[in-house]
Amino acid sequence: MVRAALRTTTARAAASFQSAAGVHDQWTPRDSPHAHLTAPGLPDALVNGVRIHGSRLPPELVTVVDGIPVTTIARTAVDLARGTTFAEALEALDGGARLICTRTFAITERALRDPRQRALWAPAAHDLLAVAYDSVRTWPGTVVVREALEHVDPGSESPLESRSRAAILEAELPSPEVGYRVLGASGAVYYADFAWPGLRVLGEADGIGKYGDDPAEVRRRLRAERRRQRDLEDAGWIVVRWDSTESPATVIARIKRALHEAAQRSPSSPSNRSNGR
User: Fold this and answer.
1) What is the CATH number of domain 164-274?
2) Following DSSP, what letter does each residue of 138-158 receive, concatenated?
3) Is the Cβ–Cβ distance between 71 and 14 less than 8 Å?
């Protein structure tokens, strides 16, 4: 549908919004039943299932993928974030930053787990998102984009992780480290979705499909995950888990309890100092 729609519009038109996200294989906080094109100079319209956005589109924010003119990853992320919730905006921008790192800068997902690599490339990914944001900054629905841009992290490995971090930030809990490298009691190296190292608390966001589809593979992965959690708990970590079926309020309450429990048992907490521990 996108190719056909492009043939009927101006030469400057490009696939955008969810249609561009589909071309880039980009995280999409909200689905759309329409094909989306941005065509500068045309009026906004919905024609035969095609949503036309007649907005400004600088040439540097357009690229070509498989012969299709399409908004860049950065502009697509910003467009998807506009007019959404903070959680959805952070999902779109985190996903854009991560894709910029892996696609534009050719950084492997394994390398992105290295905090030194993330520290090196995250500012460059943020800069590209900021340039895309500057192209729309006076438009309606962009305040949330500006707010979410302050917290973008390409270390976020899934939409659920991004939405979870947004909930943590909105609840004004201590900001966690993302993709934290941690040792189990056995000496094995693991990576936690979230970590509050000073309190020795880890957070794990279990998205749908994490354990696969094949029943035997699911059982194997679940056994491995239980061993991993025991190993981390034996090393003195509190592990908090949640999945995509749980409400943000439920998740935040669970994290709060874990952080409170960790603070109470910490040698530096006021209660422990008063007890002479």
Assistant:
1) 3.40.960
2) TSTT-HHHHHHHTT--TT--S
3) yes
Total count of residues recorded for the chain: 277
Around Cβ 115, how many Cβ atoms within 10 Å? Answer: 15
CATH 3.40.960 region(s) of the chain?
164-274
Is 148:141 a contact under the CB 8 Å cutoff?
Answer: no
Print pLDDT tens along the chain (277 aa).
777 777 777 778 999 999 999 999 999 999 999 999 999 999 999 988 999 999 999 999 999 999 999 999 999 999 999 999 999 999 999 999 999 999 999 999 999 998 889 999 999 999 999 999 999 999 999 999 999 999 999 999 999 999 999 999 999 999 999 999 999 999 999 999 999 999 999 999 986 555 556 677 777 878 888 999 999 999 999 999 999 999 999 999 999 999 999 999 866 544 443 333 3
